[in-house]
Amino acid sequence: MDGLRQNKVNSLLQEELAWVIQQEGRELLPGGMITVTGVRVSPDLGIAKVYVSLFPVKDKAKAMEHIRSRAPHLRGMLGRRVGKQMRVMPELHFYLDDSLDRAEEIDELLKG
Protein backbone atom coordinates (compact mmCIF):
# COMPACT_ATOMS: atom_id res chain seq x y z
CA MET A 1 0.00 0.00 0.00
CA ASP A 2 1.39 3.35 -1.05
CA GLY A 3 1.67 6.19 1.37
CA LEU A 4 0.38 9.71 0.82
CA ARG A 5 3.84 10.99 -0.12
CA GLN A 6 4.34 8.22 -2.68
CA ASN A 7 0.95 8.97 -4.24
CA LYS A 8 1.79 12.66 -4.54
CA VAL A 9 5.17 11.87 -6.12
CA ASN A 10 3.49 9.37 -8.49
CA SER A 11 1.04 12.03 -9.67
CA LEU A 12 3.70 14.73 -9.98
CA LEU A 13 6.06 12.52 -11.98
CA GLN A 14 3.30 11.24 -14.27
CA GLU A 15 2.14 14.77 -15.08
CA GLU A 16 5.61 16.20 -15.62
CA LEU A 17 6.94 13.16 -17.49
CA ALA A 18 3.95 13.38 -19.86
CA TRP A 19 5.03 16.97 -20.64
CA VAL A 20 8.66 15.91 -21.17
CA ILE A 21 7.67 13.04 -23.47
CA GLN A 22 5.38 15.34 -25.41
CA GLN A 23 8.38 17.61 -26.07
CA GLU A 24 10.62 14.69 -27.02
CA GLY A 25 7.94 12.61 -28.78
CA ARG A 26 9.16 13.08 -32.35
CA GLU A 27 12.62 11.81 -31.45
CA LEU A 28 11.42 8.98 -29.20
CA LEU A 29 8.74 7.55 -31.50
CA PRO A 30 8.59 9.07 -34.99
CA GLY A 31 5.09 8.79 -36.42
CA GLY A 32 3.65 7.43 -33.19
CA MET A 33 2.17 8.53 -29.92
CA ILE A 34 3.42 7.79 -26.40
CA THR A 35 1.09 8.04 -23.42
CA VAL A 36 2.24 7.84 -19.81
CA THR A 37 -0.43 5.63 -18.24
CA GLY A 38 1.06 5.43 -14.76
CA VAL A 39 4.06 5.97 -12.50
CA ARG A 40 4.87 3.98 -9.35
CA VAL A 41 7.79 5.04 -7.18
CA SER A 42 9.54 2.77 -4.71
CA PRO A 43 9.10 3.50 -0.98
CA ASP A 44 12.55 5.15 -0.83
CA LEU A 45 11.70 7.24 -3.95
CA GLY A 46 14.84 5.89 -5.66
CA ILE A 47 13.19 4.09 -8.58
CA ALA A 48 10.16 5.08 -10.63
CA LYS A 49 8.42 2.47 -12.77
CA VAL A 50 6.93 4.35 -15.71
CA TYR A 51 4.17 2.61 -17.67
CA VAL A 52 3.70 3.82 -21.24
CA SER A 53 1.28 2.99 -24.01
CA LEU A 54 2.46 3.17 -27.63
CA PHE A 55 0.20 3.80 -30.63
CA PRO A 56 0.39 2.90 -33.58
CA VAL A 57 3.59 0.88 -33.39
CA LYS A 58 4.40 -2.37 -35.19
CA ASP A 59 7.56 -3.37 -33.29
CA LYS A 60 6.84 -2.39 -29.69
CA ALA A 61 9.92 -4.17 -28.31
CA LYS A 62 12.24 -2.08 -30.51
CA ALA A 63 10.37 1.12 -29.60
CA MET A 64 10.62 0.32 -25.87
CA GLU A 65 14.34 -0.36 -26.21
CA HIS A 66 14.79 3.06 -27.82
CA ILE A 67 12.79 4.75 -25.05
CA ARG A 68 14.83 2.93 -22.39
CA SER A 69 18.06 4.05 -24.04
CA ARG A 70 16.87 7.67 -23.73
CA ALA A 71 15.94 7.28 -20.02
CA PRO A 72 18.95 9.26 -18.68
CA HIS A 73 18.13 12.19 -20.98
CA LEU A 74 14.45 12.09 -19.98
CA ARG A 75 15.44 11.90 -16.30
CA GLY A 76 17.59 15.01 -16.72
CA MET A 77 14.78 16.95 -18.37
CA LEU A 78 12.35 15.79 -15.68
CA GLY A 79 14.82 16.83 -12.99
CA ARG A 80 14.96 20.35 -14.38
CA ARG A 81 11.14 20.52 -14.30
CA VAL A 82 10.64 19.27 -10.73
CA GLY A 83 13.98 20.21 -9.17
CA LYS A 84 12.39 22.65 -6.75
CA GLN A 85 9.90 20.05 -5.50
CA MET A 86 12.11 16.96 -5.20
CA ARG A 87 15.62 16.70 -3.83
CA VAL A 88 16.59 13.48 -5.62
CA MET A 89 15.22 12.42 -9.00
CA PRO A 90 14.36 8.70 -9.11
CA GLU A 91 15.88 6.41 -11.71
CA LEU A 92 13.35 5.81 -14.51
CA HIS A 93 12.46 2.26 -15.54
CA PHE A 94 10.09 2.08 -18.52
CA TYR A 95 7.52 -0.68 -18.99
CA LEU A 96 5.00 -1.27 -21.75
CA ASP A 97 1.38 -0.96 -20.61
CA ASP A 98 -0.46 -3.33 -22.90
CA SER A 99 -3.79 -3.29 -21.05
CA LEU A 100 -5.52 -1.59 -24.02
CA ASP A 101 -4.27 -4.32 -26.37
CA ARG A 102 -5.55 -7.01 -24.02
CA ALA A 103 -8.93 -5.29 -23.76
CA GLU A 104 -9.14 -5.20 -27.57
CA GLU A 105 -8.30 -8.91 -27.80
CA ILE A 106 -10.95 -9.80 -25.22
CA ASP A 107 -13.50 -7.64 -27.02
CA GLU A 108 -12.74 -9.42 -30.31
CA LEU A 109 -13.05 -12.83 -28.62
CA LEU A 110 -16.42 -11.87 -27.14
CA LYS A 111 -17.71 -10.65 -30.51
CA GLY A 112 -16.58 -13.76 -32.40
Globular, elongated, flat, extended or rod-shaped: what is the shape?
A: globular
Mind telling me the CATH class?
Alpha Beta
List the strand order in the largest sheet: 1-2-3
- Count of all domains: 1
Provide the gyration radius in Å.
15 Å
* Protein structure class: alpha+beta
Annotation field: number of helices = 4
Mean pLDDT: 90
Largest sheet, strands/sense/barrel = 3 strands, mixed
The total count of strands amounts to 3
Instruction: Give the distance, in angstroms, between the N- and C-terminal Cα atoms.
Output: 39 Å
- Please name the CATH topology: GMP Synthetase, Chain A, domain 3
Uncertain runs are none
CATH architecture: 2-Layer Sandwich
Helical fraction: 40-55%
CATH level-4 homologous superfamily: K homology (KH) domain
SSE string: HEEHHEH
Strand content: 15-25%
What does this structure look like?
It is a single chain. By secondary structure, this protein is α+β, with helices and mostly antiparallel strands. The chain has a single domain (4-111), classed as GMP Synthetase, Chain A, domain 3 (2-Layer Sandwich), CATH 3.30.300.20. It is 54% helix and 21% strand. It has helices at residues 4-28, 60-69, 71-82, 99-111, and strands at residues 33-41, 47-55, 91-96. The longest helix is centred in the N-terminal third of the chain and has 25 residues, at 4-28. It is globular, with a radius of gyration of 15 Å.
Question: In summary, what is this structure?
Answer:
By secondary structure, this protein is α+β, with helices and mostly antiparallel strands.
